[in-house]
Amino acid sequence: MLLVLPPSETKRDGGRDGSALDLAALSFPALTPLRRDALAALSRVSRTVSGASQALGLGPTQRFEIERNRLLRSSPVMPAIERYTGVLYDGLDVDSLSAAAREFAHDHVAVHSALFGVVGAGDLIPAYRLSHDSRLPGMPLKKHWRSAVSAELAAHDGLVLDLRSEAYAALGPAPDGAHYIRVVTESASGRRVALSHFNKKAKGEFARAIVAAGVEHPDASSLLDWAETAGIRLEPGAPGELDLIVG
Q1: Closest CA to 72 of 42, 103, 93
Q2: Which among 11, 27, 124, 138 is least buried, having the fewest CB atoms inside 10 angstroms?
Q3: Which H or E run includes 219?
Q4: How many other CB atoms are there within 10 angstroms of residue 226's CB atom?
Q5: Which Pfam families match (predicted)?
Q6: Which residues contact 109 (CB under 8 A, 6 or more apart)?
Q7: 84 DSSP 8-state letter
Q8: pTM
Q9: How many other CB atoms are there within 10 angstroms of residue 91's CB atom?
Q10: Which of 10, 20, 134 is nearest to 72 (CA)?
Q11: How far, in whole angstroms, is CA 225 from its chain's centroid?
């Protein structure tokens, strides 16, 4: 089983003392050459404030992000699941997970990054700034990542749950047989409407419930049965989707 999460724009500073990025140690090693190329392109565009600001869509108060990118190779690293912050990761609340749940997350959760492609939750990465809609000169991110990330996800032997935003899913669509988690609310008449504001929080809490339970589901039927016992409204939706019903 693999849960694929989106990254976040905001990230924690710092990391393990004396550590630095080691591309060879990251999961999904087939992506290493593409990661190396993306790092080089980001390094080049970050040489000037004007170039980086334009490519990354940064304002004057975000210039610290450029310095982060300049120090990518030497800045300290921490597990990806701890690096990202924001609403989804608040819902996941990794700091309060038990040691067993954190180990389960490291084995069964991945994060899809615009810079590193898909990485394992326990992979050690630095703080950086690169988004799905960033414009690296000569390197359209969708073209760069799409087929390679899709191939890595397709190679996973087991249930794949896609919790990414549609923008990140476009950088590497999940394979046939995967299940996209769509957060919806249901009216009294039974009509379901996709949520936007509470979407990320619900996905984070859902991911937390799965890793805290520590059950490796072999298929969607197993997941649906578990969700019912856990008090989570998860039901089949459109083809290839599962509806997470909240509210």
Answers
A1: 42
A2: 138
A3: none
A4: 16
A5: H2O2_YaaD
A6: 2, 3, 5, 81, 120, 121, 207, 211
A7: B
A8: 0.94
A9: 18
A10: 20
A11: 25
Strands 192-194 and 179-186: antiparallel
Closest CA to 19 of 128, 129, 126: 126
Quote the CA–CA distance of 229 and 61 in Å, as a whole number.
Answer: 47
**How far is the CA of 156 from the CAs of 70, 159, 166, 218, 247, in angstroms?**
34, 8, 20, 12, 33
Question: Cα–Cα distance between 125 and 8 in angstroms, integer?
Answer: 14
- 109-113 and 117-120 strand pairing: antiparallel
Structure tokens at 34: 């593409």
Which residue ranges make up each domain of the chain?
A: 2-245
70-88: buried (b, 16+ CB within 10 Å) or exposed (e) per residue? eebeebbbbbbbbbbebbb
Q: How far apart are CA 65 and CA 55, in angstroms?
A: 12
92 is written with which tokens? 């996941």
- Please state, as a whole number, how many other Cβ atoms lie within 10 Å of the Cβ of residue 89: 26
**Cα–Cα distance for residue pair 182/24, rounded to 1 Å:** 34
* CA angle in degrees (0–180, nearest 5) for 41-142-170: 145
Residue 219 has a CB neighbour count (10 Å cut-off) of 12
Radius of gyration of the chain (CA): 18
- Asked if 5 and 109 touch (Cβ cutoff 8 Å), the reply is yes
pLDDT digits (tens, 9 = 90+) for 163-218: 999 999 999 999 999 999 999 998 878 888 887 768 999 999 999 999 999 999 99
